[in-house]
Amino acid sequence: MNQLIIKNALIVTCDKNHTIINQGSAIINNGIIDKIYETDSNNDFPAEAKKIIDANGKILMPGLINMHCHAADSLFRGLVENLALEEWLAKVWIAEKAILTPKTTYTGSILGLAENLMNGVTTVMDMFWYPEETASAAKKIGMRLATGGIFFDPPGVGGRTQKQYLTEAENFFEKYWNDDFIIPCSMPHATYTVGETHLKEAKILAEKYNGLFSTHAAETIAEQNDIKNRYGRSVIKHLSDLGLLGSSTSLAHCVHLNKTEIELIAESSTSIIHNPISNLKLGSGIAPVWECMDAGINMTLGTDGAISGNDLDLWMALRLAATLPKGFHMKPDIVNPKEALHMVTLNGAKALGLDMALGSIEKGKKADLILIDINKIHSVPIFDPITHLVYSTARSDITDVFVQGKQVMGNKQIKNINISDTLEEVKLMSQKIASTLDGENYG
Question: Are residues 255 and 308 in the same domain?
Fold first, then answer.
């Protein structure tokens, strides 16, 4: 039996009841949580345990779930600045087309996924041009990844046709539909870059394999106006009329929604992925988080890519998600810390269709876990661990990460890769990346 014991931790389970064990231990057998209990002096730990970790002075909680990322876009961090989404994308696509190949996508994916891992993220939903390479990078690092074939009507990276996109997406489903760590998805970019026929093809494919469907939606006012001009209806009504909403669908951003759109999302059990950092930085606006929560929508959280937010700090996104609605509505009692923490744990698992397996520390669930150092100046005193996690925890506090019981980061060091090699490779690429926009008026 491959047994791991983590003892003497302050356990924040993130279960539906927000159970906390002030000094607890967890026994993990073959990657599955077998037992969680309060530690006392009479506890005898099994002699056959392969590894025992004393987590005194640390919080043990489920690994975070980053529901929207473009990991390989970390290659372009800080390249295009001070533009609204539509102008910004025009520049981004120039750089991506010039630089991205399967090989460079793999390198960028290692960089972006490693940053996620070091921030305490164990599962990432990622949308990118070459999902096979992102999946390979996730496998190498030891993370859980939701991704799949992209759909994009204009000329995109690699010059692929719509038939090629569809074939690649189906091949991805075929390869990973029963994988323990890769969760296959259909990922059309957006309603303004993918026409009705190809949107429906992407959804049909997802349904064929009982997979997930995710797209950008209602990110800007310009996007809403564009879709209304093209189809005579709002973005969410457009998606609804095409039969694309539902419990297996997650929509990234949803910054500009009216009451009818919120009702359509709620009634269809569609999840929303809130990305506060990129929405603020690109000047897209502030999403109606409180209104969506009040309607009963499953709210999750993402970092977006480092190309738009400059890093992949899900803890910063969490703090913004918990505080922006309070300031916007001048109501300090809305979006409480328990609700916010579920956005990056149990709600994310629900959006992935995996809430019976991930998102909380409970018997029978997969042991995707993180340890957080609370022997820090900004961690003393702690009156409520959940409040501390939402408002005080920094990504630098993460010390250890476990995915399905396997330690993939220990003492702040990633175990399965030498990240220094990737950093040097990206540094060598940086001049070529910068030159892709020579003569362009940006930044």
Answer: yes
Q: Are strands 20-29 and 3-12 parallel, antiparallel or unpaired?
A: antiparallel
CATH number of the CATH domain containing 73: 3.20.20.140
SS3 434: helix
Average predicted confidence (pLDDT) for the chain: 96
CB 190 within 8 A of CB 216: yes
Name the residue range of residue 18's domain.
Answer: 3-62+360-414
The verdict on 382 and 304 lying in the same domain is no
Tens digits of residue pLDDT in 318-331: 999 999 999 999 99
| pLDDT of amino acid 47 | 58
- Are 272 and 130 members of one domain? yes
Annotate 156-206 with DSSP letters as a single string: -GGG--HHHHHHHHHHHHHHHTT-SSEEEEEEE-BTTTS-HHHHHHHHHHH
Q: What is the CA radius of gyration of the chain?
A: 21
**Domain shared by 227 and 295, yes or no:** yes
On whether the CB atoms of residues 359 and 348 are closer than 8 A, the answer is: yes
Biggest distance spanned by C-alpha atoms of the chain:
71
Number of domains in the chain: 2
Asked if 342 and 367 sit in the same domain, the reply is no
User: Dihedral (C-alpha) 20, 23, 29, 31: value to the nearest 10 degrees?
Assistant: 50
CATH (domain of 400): 2.30.40.10
Amino acid (one-letter) located at 214: S
Domain annotation covers residue 308: yes
In this structure, the answer to whether residues 384 and 337 fall within a common structural domain is no
Residue 400 CA to residue 58 CA, distance in Å, equals 10
DSSP bridge pairs for 187: 150
What proportions of the chain, in percent to the nearest 5, are helix, strand and coil?
A: 40, 25, 35
Query: Which pair of tokens denotes residue 435?
Result: 């030159």
Among 296, 297, 247, smallest CA distance to 272 is for: 297
Q: Within 232-272, where are the H helices?
A: 235-241, 259-267
What's the whole-number mean pLDDT along residues 345-357?
A: 98
Predicted TM-score (pTM) of the model is: 0.97
Q: Same domain, yes or no, for 69 and 54?
A: no
66: exposed, middle or buried (Cβ count in 10 Å: 0-12, 13-18, 19+): buried
Flag whether 135 is in a domain. yes
Backbone angles phi, psi at 54, to 5 degrees: -85, 110
Residue 38 lies in a domain: yes
